[in-house]
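dumping this here before i forget
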Amino acid sequence: MKIALIGYGKMGKTIERIARERGHEIVSIIDLDNKEDFDSAAFKSADVAIEFTAPQVALSNYRRAFASGVAVVSGTTGWTEQLPQLKEEIKAGNNTLFWSSNFSLGVNIFMAVNKYLASIMNQFPDYNVEMTEVHHTQKLDAPSGTAITLAEGILENIDRKNIWVKETETKPNEMAIKSIRRGQVPGIHTVSYDSEVDTITITHDAKSRDGFALGAVIAAEFTAGKKGFLGMEDLLKF
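structure:
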């Protein structure tokens, strides 16, 4: 498969290595200094572009790729308040975007467990739920997109909580997400249910970027030839 890379930081380089290991060809690499390559024949020859950049440029990257007829797989977070509008654009233009807040297969298993645990804990109001996420100091958004996705999974299943808030809850219906930025941590997400008698905790601790990169390449393999807005639930079918 022919893959283009949009963004060539640490994640982009890891994706490049794993894609080549899986037998794919990297036909174009677009970074800050060569955005004109969206219009190049090399970029247009790609079956899929994998995009990991920054929230302020993500939508522009998607639209430029769509204009060149290239499907996109993206893990950029921090922009999703514009997702409903983007989905309409994708449908109207017959384009393709596979987006996930986290491509790690382990994290997506963790997300499924998180939803199931929340559905159980809905019956036990004595437990208060909160979340902590830890990432490297270069991460721009807080809370992380993965933390927000986890929070949404909890809010869908626990009637007494209907909104997440940063750092500290002040009302019973709120769920706090605490964000810590430290060193080069790839990502740690912990969900805790605390009562007067005990605490129930589940944690996912990423050891490297390889898990995220592998998931993104697998998503690209899945996306090639498809249309519309796709996500990990389409790929994994839990």
